[in-house]
Amino acid sequence: MATHDADPTRVLKGRDDTTCRVREVLDRVGSKWSLTVIHELGPGTRRFTEIKDAVPGISQRMLTETLRLLERDGLISRTVHPVVPPRVDYELTPLGRTLLDTVRTLLDWALTHIDDIDKARDAYDTRT
């Protein structure tokens, strides 16, 4: 696990390579599909169809792309079982598990404040 001695507030202020990479990671893990997939894998191993059924509105193509990107980033693992028909399981890696509390907190926050956000949007739309 990497550690950084630098001031964490500096990371997003500059225009250096680290800042760009941090933003790239945040874009990936902060996407609506990634957050939901990470949350769905929290309880344990799931098959593709189970994930798709648990994530309303996601297309097969988008789920495939999201899983590939999360696997590439080391957040999930993909296991292909040599059976007929083929069975593929997905699960969070130890690195992916480190995100679970943060993802749950963010999703809980959104659920708690969705009505407040709707009211703010309505007020804004009325003013403009």
UniProtKB/TrEMBL annotation:
Statement: the UniProt record of this protein carries the keyword Transcription = yes
Q: Which Gene3D superfamilies has this protein been placed in?
A: Winged helix-like DNA-binding domain superfamily/Winged helix DNA-binding domain
Keywords (alphabetical) are: DNA-binding, Transcription, Transcription regulation
Q: What InterPro entries would the database entry show?
A: HTH_HxlR, WH-like_DNA-bd_sf, WH_DNA-bd_sf
Q: Which PROSITE patterns match?
A: HTH_HXLR (PS51118)
Is Glycosyltransferase there in the keyword field? no
Q: Name one Pfam family in it.
A: HxlR
Domain named HTH hxlR-type: residues: 20-118
- Quote the protein name from its UniProt record: Helix-turn-helix domain-containing protein
